[in-house]
Amino acid sequence: MFGSEKRRVSRCYNINDLRRVAKKRLPQPMFDYMDGAAEDEVAVRNNHGVFAGWQLIPRVLVDVTEIDMRTEIMGQPSPLPLVMAPTGMNCLFHHRGELAVAAAAEEAGLIYSLSSMSSFDIETMGAVTPGPKWFQIYVWKDRSVIQEFIERCRSAGYKALCLTVDMPAFGKRERDLRNGMTIPPRFTPGALLDIALHPHWWWHMLTSPPMTLANVVGKAGEGLNDVTSLSGYAADQLDPSVNWDDLAWMIEQWQGPFAVKGIACADDAARAVEAGATGVIISNHGGRQLDQSPAPLEVLPEIAAAVDGRADVILDGGVRRGSDVVKALALGATSCMIGRGYLYGLGAGGQAGVERALEILSDELRRTLALVGCTSVRDLDATCLRRRN
């Protein structure tokens, strides 16, 4: 199976090629859950579109025989300035889900971030690969759940926590509403027909263990461990009253590298650093929350200035090319997160598809650096860019 998946993605030459194959192979409700965003989907389009507003200035007659793409991300050495973003319920897109993604991340030497809403639990993911891992967490109404997660992550060897702060309410994701991807699911006749027309997908679903939200098994009530019950429990547990005191408390509880994900303004970035965060992740949740939010790249320079080297600045949103990574680093990011980029690979070809996505981005990054005349990612700055008229 791995060989056939590898052949399938071998002729994908960019991330959009992987997206095209994933769209063909996945039932529409699952692809739309991966690909869709909130309301008019302005933010998700803008996340990538703003990269075109910057041009790269090539410096010529530079010896680029050796290109150094290594960096350090929140104290962790990394061969590339990339982090695998936390994404939930990966088994919707491939039956091996997070197992396939983490294996590909380990192969590439990259940091893998496990979502609270993952299909496999903290302990399983901590054991299957020795690569560096972060755990993404929310502020839950039941604070004992947070303490439990922290202890489980500590015992399982996770290197950092990543608190998502941009979900005081759920975004209105209209593709999911139209398809019936709700809690509980109410699939439309058209969606059910589309699922039936993808036998490779539903066969793997039928022959694999039932999908669940593994990290919260047993918390919705006795015998209620199906994905619908657990999704409802998790949705009800997200606390809209979360504030800066909660962040400070969680940082104190963890006592280690701690990133805050969902920052979109300079004041919040500075305040997160003052609270003790070692990483600020500029993100609008892939456009899945506030549809009229700015693209991360648009606010990156002002946030990088506010942080002023006191913490890592990680850009999350819209990265589809190696040249996007170059532009983000030149504008002040220390690294980038990718989410949909690797999920398209997962949907297209499992672990082989994720590996192909990372190979594409790595090759593009190396080639762009050579063409720009820069031999190290650490040397990128605003002199490498100019605004497009």
What's the mean pLDDT score? Answer: 95
**SSE class:** alpha/beta
What is the beta-strand fraction? 5-15%
End-to-end separation: 48 Å
The ordered H/E elements are: HHHHEEEEHEHEHEHHHHHEHEHEHEHE
Ranges with pLDDT <50 over ≥5 residues?
A: none
CATH architecture: Alpha-Beta Barrel
CATH topology, what is it called?
Answer: TIM Barrel
Q: Which word captures the global form?
A: globular
Number of domains: 1
* Total count of strands: 12
At the first level of CATH, what is the class? Alpha Beta
Radius of gyration, rounded?
20 Å
Major sheet attributes = 8 strands, parallel, barrel
CATH superfamily: Aldolase class I
Describe the structure.
This protein is an alpha/beta fold and 389 residues long. The chain has a single domain, classed as TIM Barrel (Alpha-Beta Barrel). 45% of the residues lie in helices and 12% in strands. It is built from 16 helices and twelve strands. The strands form three sheets. Strands 4-5-6-7-8-9-10-11 form an eight-stranded parallel β-barrel, surrounded by eight helices. A two-stranded antiparallel sheet has the order 1-12. Helix 1 packs across helix 16, helix 2 packs antiparallel against helix 16 and helix 6 packs parallel to helix 7. The radius of gyration is 20 Å and the shape is globular. The chain starts with a helix and ends with a strand. The model has no long low-confidence stretch (mean pLDDT 95).
